[in-house]
Amino acid sequence: MDLGLKGKVAIVTGSARGLGAATARRLAREGASVVITDITEGSAQEVAASLRDEGLSAHCVAGDITRAQDVERLVEETVSTFGNVHILVNNAGFPRDKYLVKMSEDDWDQVMNVMLKGAFLATRAVMPSMIEQGWGRIINISSRAHFGNPTQANYSAAKAGLIGMAKALSLEEGRYGITANCVAPGFMDTEMVQALPTYETIKERAIQSQPVKRAGHPDDVANAVAFLASECAAFISGEVLHVTGGRYG
Length: 249
Fold this sequence. Notes:
This is 3-oxoacyl-[acyl-carrier-protein] reductase FabG. By secondary structure, the protein is an alpha/beta fold. The chain is built from eight helices and seven strands, in the order βαβαβαβαβαβαααβ. The protein has helices at 18-29, 41-53, 68-82, 105-133, 153-173, 191-194, 199-209, 218-229; strands at residues 9-13, 33-37, 58-60, 87-90, 136-141, 178-185, 240-243. The protein has a seven-stranded parallel β-sheet, sandwiched between helices. It is globular, with a radius of gyration of 17 Å.
């Protein structure tokens, strides 16, 4: 099926590994030009190079998604390299898990800044181009954690905030041909999760809690993003697509 992404330009934040890298690869294989951006320049350059080795169109712009000047440079370089920007995937984020009584202000602020402030800055930066061309896709990577998880008050709040943001944007920007949606992954077998000391316990508990008895893979999320970015989803906006193997609560 042709998703209609040939010639589109996509920025995927936090795309040096995991869900972001898989998403960028999926969009590139559909014919989009993708910009890999992450605070870790070496890893981001490696992802972009691997895509180019496949004959795909990719560029790397390293930077801090929480700094407005870095985000403005990201968008400016994207436009100067590929001519425009059509798709923004707000994927950058990480957990700082602790019970609330042990959570520091820094634990809270880092999670909020990367996920919510970063999404705000990136979306604000690309919106003028999307409005001018009358076409755009904003896709926020939320999480099943938006329902709430113990030890994740910061992470759950940020992921819920991304949903609220997308719903507000869908109302603001729909008249310009711009849609805004969320993908909410459940347990995903990523490098970041595999590095946790309790990885096996978390994985077993997650699989037991969901109807589909396997771990999620980054490509599961990438496929959902590609659909929401495509012409097939042109009349879908303000929605949350759960990629959780059927687990919600």
